[in-house]
Structure formats: structure tokens, C-alpha cells
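Recall that a protein's primary structure is simply its ordered list of amino acids. Everything else, from secondary elements to tertiary packing, is in principle encoded there. The following example makes that idea concrete.
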Amino acid sequence: MYLNCHSYHSLRYGTISLETLVEQARAMNITTLGLTDINTVTGIYDFTKVCQKAGIKPIVGMEIRNDNRLLYVTLAKRRSGIGEICRLLTAHKCEGVELPKVGPAFQEVITIYPISNVPEQLKENEYIGIRPDQLNILVRPEWGKWINTMVILQSVTVSNKAEHNLHRILRAIDCNVILSKLTEEDFCRVDETMKPLEELLPIYRQYPQIIANTVKVQEICCFEFDYSTPKNKKHYTRNKEDDIKLLKGLAYAGLKKRYGENHPQAHERVERELKVIDELGFSGYFLITWDIIRYSNSLGFMHIGRGSGANSIIAYCLGITDICPLELDLYFERFLNLNRKTPPDFDIDWSWQERDTILQYIFDRYGKEHVAFCGTNVEFKYRSIFREVGKVFGLPKEELDTLATSPIDQHDDNSVVKLVHKYGKMLEKYPNQRSMHSCGILISEEPITNYTALEMPPKGFSIVQFDMHIAEDIGFEKFDILSQRGIGHINDTVKLIRKNRGITLDIRDTSLSKDEPVCNDYLSRGKTIGCFYIESPAMRGLLRRLKCDNYRTLVAASSIIRPGVAKSGMMKEYIFRHNYPDKFEYFHEVFKEHLGDTYGIMVYQEDVIKIAMYFGGLSAADGDILRRAMSGKGRSLSALQKVKDNFFDSCERKGHPEALSREVYRQIESFAGYSFCKAHSASYAVESYQSLYLKVYYPLEFMVAVINNMGGFYRTEVYVHEARMSGANILNPCVNKSEYETTIYSEDVYLGFMHLQSLEAKIAQLIPHERDCNGEYLSLEDFIRRIPIGIEGVQILIFIGAFRFTGKSKNELLVQARLLLVNFKPENRNLTLLQEPAKEYKLPVLERSPFEDAFDEIELLGFPISCSPFDLLKTKYRGIVMARDLVHVHKREVKMLAYLISRKHVPTKRGTMYFGTWVDANGDYFDTAHFPDCLSRYPFQGGGCYLLLGIVEVDYHFPTMTITKMAKMPFIPDPRYSHDKEREFDTHRNLKEDVSLTHRDPYPQEHEIGLPRHRM
């Protein structure tokens, strides 16, 4: 009887979760239930599963609305009916086709019209839905004739009256109005709840035909879905046989290229993998990925294949990845095995500048009817809840800001705020809006609208209405097409090297950098600013603690730095064993033999599989089941228990004492959830080495590329500093030399116009474009004649020194600009300026402080170029020791003067602490630790220079200064405002700092890890 139920997937309308909806039905002995969310099929697959578990027959469809006006309810008679409904909505969402007021002539869909939208004539499979409160109209002759085509329309939107209030709040959020401004048309009736059938059916007892029609519809509709069969495009060629034939040919060609003519181990691995791939029917998936890579290579794009796909030698031979699985002992079973029920996926990165080209190729090559991005449900989060709900109750912006940014215990205790809390808590975890998955692409065999309606976000690539978890459940393997700035750094550096030095570099040749001695020296000293994944303070500290000077150690470092591994305590234990290999014993011979590279520690997910295999005697496939189950990715507790029992039985057969087996299992259990995929780490390490190679041998081009890709971990200022430390002559933007982006001429680096924060982007792009078309600018007058710019824009360029080629002072240029542009109308630009040359005026020479330029730069760029921040200090004091000396003053108190680069927030049991990164007056980096008691007395006060007092601790070759006192040092007053004392220190606030937040728990101490250092 319930053909029209809404869940909270009816965004900002429904209030009931799918599970609650089905629970309510089961509690009322309802045996058939229809889900018809508004303009979406997001919930139908999960709903079907939940219904089947509850013994309820699921009916699925969609309620079609246009601007919140109900047009009709659609129900799929069978699976193909969902495709018809989805294509109707897709045409509206993606092509702008108006939703028809009367439903189309569906083949496998039942359409139910509300009383408010009854067509003149009903087609086959069309009905009119009548609510209990509307039955009294049937006494009228004009309605009585429709009784034989009517069904019960008891819509379900809320569970009770309290939820109806929540529904109204959701509607107010959606309509962007305060609660009192809602009209009755904006929200549902208060009685749209589920009632027991013994309460609902008697209302219709005078109209048995309506009840019979409703039962008939329930019987006709049957949504049966096969969750077990793959839904991806099946074949790259015409059939499975041709697919495996092509894949074999490509694999053996790649084998020869990668390993030469005679490599038995690689040949055997290729054979084994091909057999599994063929058996599981994944040849097409590999070939489609290869096809995408082939296209990318044809354009000269660089890509990084990473993730568990790098465990495959076939992927390596096809050029999808650049990681040799034999070199690092990577297990194919971690990616694909006969026991694995869930599909694999390849993670492939491109430069953020090139990714859209790859996406366009995929959509064009395989057809927009078969390709779409995964969707994702963006939930109401802490800040958005309080902002949105507070706005509904009419709170002003200042109060909304306070609610969103301060802890709940600091909120006001008035009645309105209590209501915000009450309904805000009810909204937690509710889906708020649908968005695009960052990288997951689906390529389907059938038209993708057979499974879902498509939506078109601003990005321009269609998305499905469900997320990656539902996609996986219903049988889709996604292709992860990612972008990252690290590849942009590498790509652009190679282009700049060719342009600036005339050198063509094949950076894809990974042998270039892996074992290069100078690169390894930089690595061991943490000289990695700008390099992908290894530039953060934490990573540079880890590299120094490990004295990391080779590829394998970098692979391990890339894994143990991950929050999960560090949280498990494995990072600390690894550092200890790496530095003191003679101060521990291997727990068991198997750990020495198979985990020798990581000192007997399960650092990688692959290590869990190794121990399960070589100690426990399980197969690699069962080892992967164990790993997935413990990492939370395995959904079946019974499957985990089965593998666990198998593990202990196998250990007993191998003769291991029970206590030993239990300790090994405890370690697996402790680390499996935290460990990181080794293939993933190896992919990161290769890219890190590529970046580092460029930084070592082509530092200026590399830093310019980092700056142009908008950096990485740090702000632009840090990369400009690094370029200067590498020998660059850093120059302010110039209208005759600079581009939109930063550019390099030999050792001269001209900052791009993009860095001028107040300059319009279109003007910043037009300046170099006009110069390229019509030659250099001859004067300020010539520039103003050619560029449609106002006095504010010209002043920005004058203050930054962009017209220094004229030889005139900033003061002269300002006067000239104002004379040229005063009362000037853009439409008269050419006419006025060409009539007569500008008059030259003899101006008095005005004295300028040497620091005025620096303050101009701070105001316009955010940092000084013409001098160092230290030069702007009132004091000449520079501290007792410099950063390079810290490693020699262990346990000593030192005083230092430093410029703040970044700080990282870390919660502890005693309160907030920070780790700081600084540069000294020589430009060298060092790190500090600030504990809660110190911070309460000596807090950070924004960007700038500080005087630091603290104790130096050298931890495994890496010095950290634990701060006891700290004071921000005053800069000289801004000389540009010497006449205006109130503004003398305004510009100082433009100095920035990088602040990163983390909400992780503190890392465990050594005694909390519980990893034995002695043989058991």
C-alpha cells in the first residue's frame, strides 16, 4: 500500500534513512514497500538489499518533480523500467530538456499522477493516486468516473511530528529562507508518515477497487537485480578470446622491453598473471587502461600508475606502471586473485593541467552513454549544520560564525541556540548534496542509464547518482583518473630546461635518478623542498633520522610516514631498528627471511600476506582476505573467522607452539589495519626521485615549475626563497619581461603577474599577450594606450616596479599615470591618447627609503623581494647559533632569531601543541616543538620573525629545538606612512605563515607498541 516513500536521499526533503524506513515497515507487518525518492535513484540498490534481508518485497522508482511541483510518481515494473525513468531524468539534468507535465509512453513503468496533475486521458499502466484526505471529492461526478484507475497514495516522508519540524528546516535550507517564510507548498503534509495497514485500509473500505488496484500494482512491479555479475565494459576488442590474445601479445612485447630476451622469473610471473586475469575476465579492464595510457603517451603526457595495480607485472609490461614487482617482491595477489570478490582498480595520476584532456578522450572514445564519474554524497558537517540551521532560525552572520567556529560548550545557552543544537544533531550524517567523486570513472557495457540517472555538474562531465561503494556493490570496477601538482612540477621543469638550456631530458627513464649519488645525499640531508611527497617538515625530519640514501629506504619511509602506520607505533620502531640493527633480534626466522628489508616489521600490507603465507602456511589469496578483513575492507566477519581458524590450524600443522602463533596473529591484527600498500609507496618513491633529480641538477627551472603549479606543501614565498638559495636572481614582475606565470631567463627569475594579489586576472593575462602580438611597451603612456586598465591597476604595477625599464622613479610614474588617466573614459582611449603626446613635467626629486620597495612587495605579493625579512627588523641581533650548528649542540639551551615558515597543530592529552618550521638569517631550515604549557605563555602571533629560546634535542641525527620562550620581533615602521602613525604597522599583517591542522591522537610511546625485540 506504500508506493511513494521518500528516504533522506530525497535531498533536503526526506528525513528517514533506508534502514529506518524498512524497520518501520517490518514493525507494521508491511510486506511490500516502494521507494520513490525525488528525482533520484541513489538509494534503490541499498534499499533492495535491506528489504530482502527484512523479508519485504522492494518496489523502486522515482518521484518526478519540477521546481518542487509534483508531476507524477514512476514505478519500475522490472529492471528495464529503471532505465526508462533514468533516461527521462538524464535528458532533463544533462541536456536541459523540460520535464514533461504528462509522463511519456513508458513500456515497463507504472505512472501515478497526483490529483493536482491528472491528464485528460490515461495511458496503459497509468493511475491516479488519491490521498486519504482527498476521498471526499469522489462524490463528485467528474471524479467518480476515475475511481477504477485510482490507487492509494499514502506518501511517507517523515517518521513523526518532530521529524516533520526537521523536514521543514531542510526545506527552508533548500529554499534559502528563514523558517517563517516557508509556504505550505514548500513542505509536505504532517501526516506523510507510515501507518499500520489496519489503520490505513479501513479509510478506503468504501472503495475496494482502489485497494485492488494498489495490490495489482504491487504484484506487477518486481525489481530483481543481479549484484554478482560485472557491469563494466566487457571487452576491449569484440570478444574475450580476442582480448586475451591482444593482452598476451602486448604483455610479451613489454616483457622483452622491460627485462630483455632471457628472464625466466619474469616470464613465469607474466604467465601466471595472464592465467588469473583471463580466468576472472579482467582482460578488457587491463586493455582499456592500456588504451588510455597509449593515448596519453601519444600526446607526450607523463603519468604515474600507482596503488595496488603496481603489484602486477602485466601492468608494468604494458607501461601502466613503472614499478618492477620483482625488484620489490610485490605480490600480484594483493591486486587480483581468484578468491577476491571485489574488483580491483588502477590509480593513475596526470598533471592537473592535462587530466581533463585524458577525461575527454575517455568520454569520447567509449561514448557518453557508457561513461560517467562516480557520484558522492556530501553530508551535513559540523560547520555547515550550525550555519545552515542557524540561518533558518534567523541568526545574524556574526552568531553563525561563532556557532560554526567555536566548540559546542562555548555556545550561548539561549532557546534559539538550543533549537539549533537539537535539529543540528538530528541532521548529522544526513546527505546534503550530490557531488562528483574526485577521480572514479565508470565505463559500462550497457548504457549507464540502465542503472542510474546522470547529472551534469559545472565541471562538464556527467556523474551517476550513487557513490563508489554502491558502484562496487552492483558490479562496477572504477578507473581512478587522478591529478596532482607533483607531475605538473616535473612536466613543466622538463619544458623549462629545454627552453632555458636547450637540453632534452627523458625524465621517464627512472634509472636516471634512483641510484644517483648526489640525489641520495640530498635525500639523506632532507634537502627536498618542492619534491613530491618528501617536502613536508615531518617527511624531511624522517629522511634525516633514517639518513635515507637509497630507493628501498625511501619506499619504506613513504609508507611509515602515513598516519596509520605512524599511529601504530611502527614508525618509531622502524627508525630505532634502522639506526641500531645490532640491538634487536628477529622475532622468528620467517620474519628475518621475509621481512629483512624492514627489520622484521610489517610496514606494508604485502608484509601481512607474507607472514600469513610463510609463517602461517596460508595461500597468498587467503593472506589477502586476512589483510582486507583486518583493514576494515572485508565486509564478512564469518569470512575473517574462517581464515583465522585456518591460520591457527595451519600453524599447528607446521609445528608452531600455540603461544608463538597467537603472538604472530596479534601482530598481524595490530598492523594490518594501519599498514600501507608497498606498491603505492614505491610509486610515490619513484616520483619523489624524479622530482629530486630535477631539483639537484636543474634547481632554478624546478623551483620555477613548483611556483607555477602553485607550490605544494608550502606557500609561494617558501619556493621563491628556495629558488634564491639555489642561485636565482629573483626579480619583481616587469611588463616587458614577465609572463602571467613566473618565467626564467638564464639565472634571472621574473615573478609572474598571477602573484599580484590585487591585479585582475584578465589584465594579468592580457599584458604578456599584447606584448607578444605587438612588441614591447615603449613607455607608461604606450602601455596605457594598449591595455584597457584603470588607475588602480596601473598603480599596482607601478608600486611593484613593473615599469622600471623607463628609468623613472615610482613617484614620477604615479604622477604621469594620474595625468594620463584622470577623468579618462575607456571608450576614448585610442582617440585621446593618439591626439597628442603626454606632457612631460619636471618633478622635484623625492627621497625614498630603501625599504619602501620591500613594504610595497609585502602589500602586493605577501612577502618582500628586494630584501630579506631579517633586514626589516629593528634589531641587528641574529641569535647565538645558526641552523647548521644545531646538530652539534645536543641538550644545550640556545637562542635563535628565525622567520616563521609553517606550524603544525597536534592535539595531546595535555592540550594543543605545535611543531614549527623556520629559516634563520642564512636561509637554512630548522624545526621546533612547542608544548601546551609554553604556548599558553608564549603563543604564536602570526607571520614574521621571532626570538626563540629553547633546548636542542638531536634525535637520530635530526635536531629539534624545544621552545621555552618565544617573542615576535618588531619590524621597522612602514616608511611609506611615516606621516600617518595609525597605519605604520598595517602592512606587517600581510606576512603569512602556513598552518596545518591534524585531529589525530598522539603517537604511542615505545612501551605502548608491544613489539618484541627478542626471539620468541
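The radius of gyration is 34 Å. Residues 463 and 877 are 59 Å apart (CA to CA).
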